[in-house]
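I would like you to sit down with the pair of lines that follows and say whether tokens and residues agree.
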Amino acid sequence: MTTRSFPALVPEGDLRGFTYNAGGRCRTSRIAPLETVIESAVQSGMTIHYPWLSTRASAALFEVVRQARAGRLADLTIASTSIRAEIALLVASRGVRRIVTSFAASSHPAIRPNPAFSRALAEESIELEEWSLLAIVQRTLAGALGWPFVPATTMQGTDLPSGVREGLGTREVKDPFNHVDTLLMPALTPDVCLVHCPVADWEGNGVLFEPLAEGVHPIYAATEGVVVTADIVVSPDELRRWSGFVKVPASRVIGLAQVPLGAHPNASHVPVGIGGVSGYGEDYDFHTELGALRSEGDLEAFCQRWIDPPSRDSYLSQLGSERIKNLVTKDLDESWQVDWLAKPPSSAPTSAPSVGERLAVAGANALADLAHERAARTVIAGAGISSLAAALGRIALLDAGIEVDLVFESGVVGYVPRPYDSTLSNTRNLPTARQLNSTLEVLGMLAQSENTSTIAILAAGAVDQGGNANSNRVVDGRFLVGGGGSTDIVGRVKTVVVVPADARRFLRRVPFITYPGENVAAIATDVGVLAKSGDTYVLSTWFTDCANSVNAALDLIRDRIGWEVRAADTVRPIDPPRPDEREFLRMIDPEGNLLG
């Protein structure tokens, strides 16, 4: 047998003077100005992925918009599971031709169609390709793994995908193992991915904190690579302190720029206990201003102020130090108390309950009933008024000795809603969560594997008599906001849908099926709750201040929604929103953005 000897690391028996240099050789910094990075990495005709992660690469996207407005970029496609008020800037860029998404809307102070995007779609200056949230995540995962296609597991029975170019939608094949018909969809492989990191090293390795929403897949699916912006850039040695959070490998990076507040107006959350780097919250004022721009003139003026100047110093100086300090404060644990000190909560309102309050209370009651029936342990909460209903329903269940975990589709599991912020995705809730992961784990795995003990509560633009819901189109075909993850949620778990009792939103048949009605167990309205009984919906509860008898309640709901509704065998009256319920709801939404 041959014996191989190795040179000793240190003199035998003597460790004095031994040092281990983890840094290795020092490489040249890859940092460049953002303008230069985008000029090098992004070319006309490309598909750019702008992923929803724990933060967003807003500054990088704004630079793409700036260069498109200057005429350097054209015929771009932007892919993302979710695009909020930034959608208006893509319109203003005049260089974006196509949007691939599951949700595109103004999101603050409440979710509503974005006027600039609606106008662009009507003028056909931009094309829209719609998928479900999980479908985009799964397609990107396929791209990252080198798969040519992947099963479409949640869009059956819907009108998704929509607006897909010929030959690039879903295809039905026979599963060779189970011999059942299966839908397949193509992998999503963008050219370039834009990622913002709270901290990166000068080689391009980047830190991302959970929840990761779309996950790391876009980083690996992009065929050319990743453009990274970072609030802070450190040495490779120093980055090792955050090694457990490094999700972007330098080998995938084709451009790196240090951009302070590079996620603004979106948040960049840093978990409690993580030192050496600061986070910041969302700038709701910026989102509100951007989301409300209607005319081309207003949009042009906004871009001339915020987008066209190439200097980051100019951008930050316009924000001002006080506004920046307030945004940094918003990411601190218990920062809601700052708002409480500035504007202490008022006592419970004495006026008549608003429609929003009635919807939240009706939704909470329906959610509690469904949780008892299903022995639920997990509740997936949708955005808007349904998130407030979920928060109130959780309290009602706790009072009954039942604890459920509230879940948000970005990968937030077991959160407790904090006061003074009604936005479901707000970072103030993150320190309360039991677990932070990703959309693939929540919608792709949890909802699928625990579908008997998981329920959901969501909103919808409109519903029909079969429980089918629509958040994608109005009756004349115009785009609404998109269904986001609702398609994936209702495709797998029993759900309460919250919709105001309005004949314009209760239809005989919806014009577009965002999610089918098979799993819609109840529809909560501001009059009462319609529970599923066989193939129809029957009145199961009504507010006593709306009607003094079941017959009066039936007359009212029939008149309001235009459906022929009968009473459930177990129909019962419920109290109108109580002062303690209204006070709880107003603590979360003190400005009445959702409650009215």
Notes: The mean pLDDT is 93.
